[in-house]
From TrEMBL:
<dbReference type="InterPro" id="IPR025753">
    <property type="entry name" value="AAA_N_dom"/>
</dbReference>
<dbReference type="GO" id="GO:0006950">
    <property type="term" value="P:response to stress"/>
</dbReference>
<feature type="region of interest" description="Disordered">
    <location>
        <begin position="65"/>
        <end position="93"/>
    </location>
</feature>
<dbReference type="InterPro" id="IPR027417">
    <property type="entry name" value="P-loop_NTPase"/>
</dbReference>
<comment type="similarity">
    <text>Belongs to the AAA ATPase family. BCS1 subfamily.</text>
</comment>
<keyword id="KW-0547">Nucleotide-binding</keyword>
<feature type="compositionally biased region" description="Low complexity">
    <location>
        <begin position="65"/>
        <end position="81"/>
    </location>
</feature>
<dbReference type="InterPro" id="IPR003959">
    <property type="entry name" value="ATPase_AAA_core"/>
</dbReference>
<protein>
    <recommendedName>
        <fullName>AAA+ ATPase domain-containing protein</fullName>
    </recommendedName>
</protein>
<keyword id="KW-0460">Magnesium</keyword>
<feature type="domain" description="AAA+ ATPase">
    <location>
        <begin position="215"/>
        <end position="318"/>
    </location>
</feature>
<keyword id="KW-0732">Signal</keyword>
<dbReference type="Pfam" id="PF25568">
    <property type="entry name" value="AAA_lid_At3g28540"/>
</dbReference>
<dbReference type="InterPro" id="IPR003960">
    <property type="entry name" value="ATPase_AAA_CS"/>
</dbReference>
<dbReference type="Pfam" id="PF00004">
    <property type="entry name" value="AAA"/>
</dbReference>
<keyword id="KW-0067">ATP-binding</keyword>
<dbReference type="Pfam" id="PF14363">
    <property type="entry name" value="AAA_assoc"/>
</dbReference>
Length: 434
C-alpha cells in the first residue's frame, strides 16, 4: 500500500510539472481527523448549485437532485413556495466556469476510504497555470460574494419579538410578510429614493469601513394609523432580506436588559422601535426603524443628526397611490371616471384617506370593481374639505404625494426625507430609556 501510494504521488508530481494547469483542492472537512467543516467547500457548493448548474448551457451531463426531509419553504420571494430540490454536481463530474476571460473547471470528488464506509468529498478547481496566481484571489472573492448573496436570498428569515423582562430573550417566528416595494402603493419618487438609499446602505461596506462610521442607518417613519408604516418596514425587510427584531420597550425594565437584547440581534437585521422616546446605542450592520404617529411630539434631541438619518412621512393616499391600489385590488386602471373623480376630490378638495382605508373599501367590493371604485369616489367626495373650486390646487409633498395642509409649502425630498449623515451614535448615550 505504501509503495502504491508513493508511486501515485510521484505520478501526480510528474503530471503536475507537465500539465499547463494548476489544481486547487477544497476538501469538505479540515484537519487530520477531518471533522472541522470547511466553509469554502460550502461556498463552492452554493456557487455551483445556483450560478453554474442552473445557468450553464449545456448543463453538465449528470447532476444529483435532493430534497432533505427538513426542507421547509424556500424560494427567493417573500411568500411561501413549495420546497425546491437541491441540485448538485454528481461525484467525479465537472463543470466549467469563465472568470475574467479565464476558464475555471470544477470537479466534484467523492472517495471512499479504505476499509471504511466513510466517504471523503472535495472539489478541485483547475485554472490555467500561467494565470493562476493572479486569477485565484479575485475568483475566490467573487465566489464568496456570490455564495453569500445566494445564502442570504435562500435563507428563511425570522421575526423576533422580545419577551417580558427579566428573561432578556427574543422569541421568533418565520417572517413571511407579503408586502414588497412592488405591492406597496407609494409615491414613485419616494419609492425610488428609498430603494436607492437602501442600496447605498446595503452595498456600503467599503464606505463605512473607510469613514469609520458604524454600519447602521436610522429611519424615522411617521404618519397616522394606517398610512403604511408597518407595511413599509416589511417591504424594507423583504428587499434587504434582513431579519426583523421588533423591540417592545414596555417589556424592557432596565438598561442592562436592553443591552442584553441588542447584543443578541444579528447583523443584517432591521430593529423596529415603535416607542421612540428612548435612547439607544447601536453599532453594526443594522437598519433601525422608529415609528410614530405623532412626529410633533418627539423630543427634538432625538431628531438630531446621526440618530435618525432618514425621515419619511407617510400620510393619506395621493392620487397615484389610489390608482395603484385600485388597479391592484380590483383591476380598474387609469382613465376610469370614478378614479378621475377620486383624484379630483384629493387634489382639489383636500380629501384624505389612508392606504388602509382605501384598501378596505376596495377589499370589501373586490368582486365588483365598478362598485368598488364608485364607493371609493363617493367616500372621498364626502371627505372634501373645499366648498368652492377656487381653493387652488394644493401643493404636493414629494415624500408621500399627499396634499399639504392649507398655507404650508411642499417641503420636497430634502425637507421630508433628510439624510442627515453625521457621524454619531444613534443617541447621545446608551443609558437606556429616558
Ligand atoms: N402604501 C400602501 N400600499 C398598499 N397597502 C397599504 C399601504 N399602506 C397601508 N396599506 C394597507 O393598510 C394596512 C395597514 O397599514 P399599516 O399597518 O402598514 O399602517 P401603519 O401606519 O403601520 O398603522 P399603525 O400606525 O396603526 O400601526 C396594511 O395591512 C395594508 O394592507
Amino acid at each position: 500500500t505504501q509503495l502504491l501510494s508513493l508511486l501515485h504521488s510521484l505520478w501526480q508530481s510528474l503530471q503536475d510539472s507537465l500539465t499547463p494547469y494548476s489544481y486547487f483542492d477544497v476538501p469538505e472537512f479540515l484537519g487530520s481527523a477531518a471533522v472541522e467543516p470547511n466553509a469554502l467547500y460550502r461556498h463552492v457548493q452554493l456557487y455551483l448549485q445556483r450560478s453554474l448548474l442552473v445557468a450553464s448551457s449545456p448543463p453538465p451531463p449528470r447532476l444529483t437532485l435532493s430534497l432533505p426531509r427538513s426542507a421547509s419553504v424556500s424560494g427567493t420571494s417573500s411568500s411561501p413556495t413549495a420546497p425546491v430540490p437541491h441540485v448538485s454536481l454528481s461525484p467525479n463530474h465537472s463543470v466549467a466556469d469563465t472568470f475574467e476571460g479565464h476558464r475555471a473547471v470544477w470537479t466534484h470528488h467523492a472517495d471512499t476510504l479504505q476499509d471504511s464506509l466513510e466517504e471523503r468529498r472535495s472539489f478541485s478547481l483547475r485554472l490555467p497555470k500561467r494565470h493562476a496566481a493572479t486569477v485565484l484571489p479575485a475568483y475566490l472573492a467573487h465566489l464568496a460574494a456570490a455564495a453569500d448573496h445566494l445564502e442570504r436570498s435562500s435563507r428563511a428569515r425570522r421575526l423576533h419579538t422580545n419577551a417580558a423582562s427579566p428573561t432578556r430573550a427574543w422569541a421568533s417566528v418565520p417572517f413571511c410578510h407579503p408586502t414588497t416595494f412592488d405591492t406597496l402603493a407609494l409615491d414613485p419618487a419616494l419609492k425610488a429614493r428609498l430603494l436607492s438609499d437602501l442600496a447605498a446602505f446595503a452595498g456600503g461596506a467599503e464606505f463605512y469601513r473607510r469613514t469609520g462610521r458604524p454600519w447602521k442607518r436610522g429611519y424615522l417613519l411617521h404618519g397616522p394609523p394606517g398610512s403604511g408604516k408597518s407595511s413599509l418596514i416589511a417591504a424594507m425587510a423583504n428587499h434587504l432580506r434582513y431579519d426583523v427584531f421588533d423591540l417592545e420597550l414596555t417589556r424592557v425594565a432596565t438598561n442592562a436588559d436592553l443591552r442584553a437584547l441588542l447584543i443578541q440581534t444579528t447583523n443584517r437585521s432591521i430593529i423596529v422601535i415603535e416607542d421612540i422616546d428612548c435612547s439607544l446605542h447601536l453599532t453594526g450592520e443594522r437598519v433601525i426603524v422608529f415609528t410614530t404617529n405623532h412626529v410633533d411630539g418627539i423630543d427634538p434631541a432625538l431628531l438630531r443628526p446621526g440618530r435618525m438619518d432618514v425621515h419619511v412621512r407617510l400620510d393619506a393616499c395621493g392620487p397615484h397611490a389610489v390608482r395603484e391600489l385600485a388597479d391592484r385590488y380590483v383591476g380598474v386602471g387609469a382613465g376610469h371616471e370614478m378614479l378621475d373623480a377620486a383624484e379630483d376630490a384629493i387634489v382639489r378638495g383636500g380629501a384624505e384617506m389612508t392606504p388602509a382605508e382605501v384598501g378596505e373599501v376596495l377589499l370589501r367590493n373586490r368582486d365588483e370593481p365598478e362598485a368598488a371604485v364608485t364607493e371609493l369616489a363617493a367616500e372621498l367626495k364626502a371627505r372634501r374639505r373645499d366648498t368652492d373650486d377656487d381653493d387652488a390646487l394644493r401643493q404636493w409633498e414629494l415624500s408621500d404625494g399627499s396634499p399639504t395642509k392649507k398655507g404650508r409649502k411642499g417641503l420636497g425630498w430634502e425637507g421630508k426625507v433628510r439624510i442627515l449623515g453625521r457621524l454619531r451614535s444613534l443617541t447621545k448615550s446608551d443609558s437606556g430609556r429616558r
